[in-house]
Amino acid sequence: MSLEKIYGVHAVEALLRHHPKRVKQVWLAEGRSEPRVQALVELATQNKVAIGQAERREMDVWVEGVHQGVVADVSPSQVWGEAMLDELLDRTEGAPLLLVLDGVTDPHNLGACLRSADAAGALAVIVPKDKSATLTPVVRKVACGAAEVIPLVAVTNLARTLEKLQQRGLWVVGTAGEAEVSIYDQDLTGPTILIMGAEGKGMRRLTREHCDYLVHLPMAGSVSSLNVSVATGVCLFEAQRQRGAQIKAKVKK
């Protein structure tokens, strides 16, 4: 079995906390001994994971990116299939929130979206199998541990998946610059699928046709749009804000 190299303190720590059996060896740059690295060493030791030392220049060859003097050899990344969605929904109480990234190909954007999705309480992130970024060491590094927590589900036919989820009672909300309704005026408290389109191109036509609602992000400045990962964070946290307000209102009653 071939191994992947995952790098960065947060990414490696998240793997040790949530999927320790996947970690085969942790490598530390010579001379690293600050508290957060010591905490990582303790975590690895608790999970009986081997720890080794290497020269920084050697680690620079292993990975492309800022490794922070921490690299781990791990079993291959886990991308879930469509069946995972049914399992997640079956065991979820309350109104689920799902994020769909329709053709987001930049690994930095995918990593940032995974981080925002986890922070906002999304159940999973859904991507099409083709023409989309997938889990890589870069994605894991940018996600700062979120890639080890929130499921990334790759589906063969996104339109068909949306139809199945709609049959389960979820509402599909797509983002489009020309939409008349603002994200802040759209009810996001129910079972919701939020769709963000590809960088520059937006949603594909067939994906758009499966949306129950279209919304836009109001822009007050001179730029016409936001980076997809930034826009995703804004939309997800608006959904979180609405849901939190709804819970508070019920408590007051």
Secondary structure elements and pairings:
Blueprint lengths: L3 E4 L1 H10 L4 E7 L5 H12 L3 E5 L1 H7 L7 E5 L8 H8 L6 E6 L4 H13 L4 E5 L8 H7 L8 E4 L2 H10 L3 E5 L5 E2 L9 E6 L7 H5 L3 E4 L11 H25 L1
Parallel strand pairs: 2-3, 5-6, 5-10, 6-7, 8-10, 8-11, 9-11
Antiparallel strand pairs: 1-4, 2-4
Function: Specifically methylates the ribose of guanosine 2251 in 23S rRNA.
Family: Belongs to the class IV-like SAM-binding methyltransferase superfamily. RNA methyltransferase TrmH family. RlmB subfamily.
Keywords: Cytoplasm, Methyltransferase, rRNA processing, S-adenosyl-L-methionine, Transferase
Write up what this structure looks like.
The protein is of the alpha/beta class. The chain has helices at residues 9-18, 35-46, 56-62, 83-90, 107-119, 137-143, 158-167, 205-209, 228-252; strands spanning 4-7, 23-29, 50-54, 70-74, 97-102, 124-128, 152-155, 171-175, 181-182, 192-197, 213-216. It starts with a strand and ends with a helix. Helix content is 38%, strand content 21%. The protein is elongated, with a radius of gyration of 20 Å. Keywords: Cytoplasm, Methyltransferase, rRNA processing, S-adenosyl-L-methionine, Transferase.
